[in-house]
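Q: How would the structure tokens look for this protein?
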Amino acid sequence: MTPRLDTVFAALADPTRRAILTMLLEDDMAVTDVAEPFEMSLAAISKHLTILTRAGLISQEKRGRVKWCKLEPDALRDASIWMQSFGQFEAVNLDAFERFLETELPQRPDPE
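A: Here is the predicted structure in token form.
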């Protein structure tokens, strides 16, 4: 495996980071909004976001005083190709991946 794939799989290994990716499937989010449903500090969430950014799974952009996070959907392409080389995995269908994550991860509470 290439170092890039190692980074992607390491990022996906953490349930908090997978939950963040699920949240970003819906839309871009401010860092503070990403942190809201988690019972951890903003600094801890920022570390998770840094790992996801380094893996290329998300991008972060400063807009005014707010830092926004955006899912990079093509980031899983290399991992999908690698898994296909075993012949027992199908291509990653991002819609199916989203449905899988929604069933496997706890739902975010609705904002009031």
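The beta strands are 29-30, 58-63, 66-71.

The longest helix spans residues 42-54.

Upvote if useful.
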